[in-house]
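Quick one, T. Sequence first:
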Amino acid sequence: MDKCLTEEEKRRYSRQIAIEEIGVCGQQRLRSAKVIIVGCGALGSMVAMQLAGAGIGTIGISDFDTIDVSNLQRQFFFKTDEAGMKKSAVLQQRMEDLNPSCHVLCHDALINRERAVELFSDYDFIMDATDNPSSKFIIESVCQQLCKPCSIAGVSEFHGQVMTVFPGSTKFGEVFPDSGTEGFLPCSIGGVVGPAAAICASLQSAEVIKYLTGAGECLKSKLMVFDLLNNSYNVISL
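Structure tokens:
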């Protein structure tokens, strides 16, 4: 365990430390942790900011895309005059502005299998925030190879789904073996409302915080599904 929290850290994270399931020890675990987020769009940008705020010590962000005005309806940490800029570079600055003690590693690259093996090896938890099935299958496969836990999520229109995959648990590929793009349409093809993306990202952030601190239960061999149109929220055992 790292050294004791500083007085500034105790003030910054006081509301989180006050949670019985987290406390000082849990906050120290968050500070010692390394998490990588693949994708800096609607899900990834929200997850990144939430985890930086929560005090994750090292956060990697990986994306090769640039900001487009059409992103701003659901990607709230980018600005209109930043259109055309690299998402990962802009998001890194936002995270460091929010929490200067958070060490942010910016990986401006397209994730393929070889790159994923290289990157993921250094992290404790992998967050999938991509918007296409092929990337999700690659991320999950590499995580299984490296025995790393990962959270996989998708959002479309008013609904979303989240699951956390551990070595030996039910895999995304087993639940959606021939999923095509169903439930995980790229936002440029299928629509999505901002609140659905924010909820989905918050569920993912909660998964990594629970895993790192030992609080509660993660969505292991479970799929969390929500639909804001009819206000339904379900956890399906897999």
